[in-house]
Amino acid sequence: MLKFLDLNFDMFGIDISDSAVKVLKLKKKRGYFKVEFINEVDINSGIVQEGVIIDELALSDLIKKSLSIKNGRKIKTKYVVASLPEEKSFLQVIQMPKMEQKELESAVLYQAENYIPLPLDKVYADFQVIDSKENLNHINVLVIAMPKTTVDSYFSCLKRSGLVPVVLEVESQSIVRVLIKNEESKSPIILVNYGKKNSNIIIFSARSIRFTSSVTASSNQITEAIAKEFSISEQEAEQIKTSFSLLDKDKDEKSARIYKAIYPILEELIMQIKKYISFYKDHILQDKDFLNHTEQLTDKEKIIITGGGSNLKGLSEFIEKEISIKTEIGNVLSNLKLNKKSQNNFINGKGSSFCTSIGLAIRAVNNYD
Hints:
By secondary structure, this protein is of the alpha/beta class. It has a single domain (2-224, 245-366), classed as 2-Layer Sandwich (Nucleotidyltransferase, domain 5), CATH 3.30.420.380. It has helices spanning 56-66, 101-112, 148-160, 171-179, 219-230, 234-243, 253-284, 288-293, 315-323, 340-347, 355-366; strands spanning 2-3, 11-16, 20-29, 32-42, 48-49, 52-53, 79-84, 90-97, 123-131, 138-147, 164-170, 185-194, 199-206, 208-215, 302-306, 326-329. The strands form four sheets. Strands 1-11-7-2-3-4 form a six-stranded mixed sheet, sandwiched between helices. A hairpin with a 2-residue loop joins strand 3 (20-29) and strand 4 (32-42). Helix 1 crosses helix 3 (148-160), helix 4 (171-179) crosses helix 11 and helix 5 (219-230) packs antiparallel against helix 7 (253-284). It is globular and about 65 Å long. The termini are close together. Residues 288-295 have low confidence and may be disordered.
């Protein structure tokens, strides 16, 4: 998380991905959140690719467009908490000897150089201590780094749009804030953000993200497979996808064709999830001290699916059957007490696809370090 200002501002969240700009402003009163502003603007292909801003002018125009809606309502503040692309981030949990905070700040960056695949002068880096138990002979530190070129381009684009970036954070940090209660879990949780153009796999345990990866599996691939199978437009295929359920794959001939067409895409997603769970298991088994104070991957772990692709009916049941781990669709409102009117903003098709935006907006309201 990169903080550029320490002052207390009225802020909102803005999520910029390859496919859309999503804006959300919340207001907190007496422990409840109210949606003050919500909007989504599609990004045309080629403006942002795999997290890299290709056309800054075009993206700035779309950001400006996202700050107002047809009824004349506009965002009244220019201060923003914005997302950074997961696929461009480097995240690593490293072990450090116990030391004072001031010593740790310089020592962590020196040690992190062994894990970050870029020179330190080419990245922005931040860290947080995630384990500091007295009976451990070391502390575990989560290091997050991002190329300066990537961060600077997002910062510049937001400034060009008339906004003042106060905090920039990686998508996974926002997602965890939304889906994991109090950002703590005794058993490992595998979060899968199944997006329109790519997906993020996040493994969270104890009080921290332990691992993240961006993979190419996406909801768009399913739409494209259906369009190809039936020789129809992607718009028509999207409508079919919306009504189709994986639980009804054998209902009739059409359902069987749909399932056959999209199965290779779902199989790739399953393979990626299995791959990174296996990687995490192998990694954590090497840390005996960590295993003494947290739980390994056991039958208590679970998978939580979010992102627009999680709206595919029967997806959680499909993944649970294929991987044999309890799987559920993430409830983006589980940590967000909203009044009934505000809930409808998310119930009417915006829920899981706004997961990152909600995390950013909560960060903006709470304005905590």
